[in-house]
């Protein structure tokens, strides 16, 4: 949902944690439940339980097929529910004076500012055709950064996404729209990185309007601030 009004950046102390927008998760859950309800209705038309009772192997095949089919929306529902938990402990981007922590599910990846290149926006386009030949175009705006040694790859559209050390889709965290969110986050993180690399401790940052509603004080939700790696590189847990 695009931002309205003349909102200005506001200063917030570090560390900050960006968490997914709640409205988007609720909408996802509703859509997936409707989808699963329709799929369940279709299954019922085949009466697979009656076939199973008659020991017809077709019934087992139908149940096995739709069980696998249901796992995909069920996975996304569980993911959306995890994003709705208070403080979103399993999905967030934490910004600290020393670096970043990107949490996705049960994996956390830590970065220091010194090991990352400046941040850029990468557009990934996927196209598909329906049975009538109509083409659908889906755009994904990633915010990415490479390791410092690979910074030259940021100019290579074909290689930079695959070689990115830091990669995320920021539209779940922002309220300005896919492209605008990506541009705002890329500029914001690059600005914080540049300030941190001057050697001074960055204590406060100006949060762009798109992320003000999803930026929480990390101290209140058990922060996991980035720590320098021994010997450099990305730290994972």
List the helices and strands and how they pair.
Layout: E1 10-13, E2 16-18, H1 22-45, H2 48-53, H3 57-84, E3 91-95, E4 99-104, E5 107-112, E6 120-129, E7 135-145, E8 166-168, H4 178-196, E9 204-207, E10 215-217, E11 235-236
Antiparallel strand pairs: 1-9, 2-3, 2-10, 3-4, 4-5, 5-11, 6-7, 7-8
Helix pairs in contact: 1-3
The main sheet comes to: 6 strands, antiparallel
For the record, the CATH class of the largest domain is Mainly Beta
The average pLDDT is 83
**Helical content, roughly?**
25-40%
* Class of secondary structure makeup: alpha+beta
CATH topology (fold) name of the largest domain = PH-domain like
Rg for CA atoms: 22 Å
Major sheet: arrangement of strands: 10-2-3-4-5-11
Q: Total helix count?
A: 4
Inertia-based shape: elongated
CATH architecture of the largest domain: Roll
Catalogue the unreliable spans. Answer: 1-5, 223-237
N-C termini distance: 34 Å
Q: How many distinct beta strands?
A: 11
Order of helices and strands: EEHHHEEEEEEHEEE
**How much β-strand is present in the residues?**
15-25%
Number of domains: 2
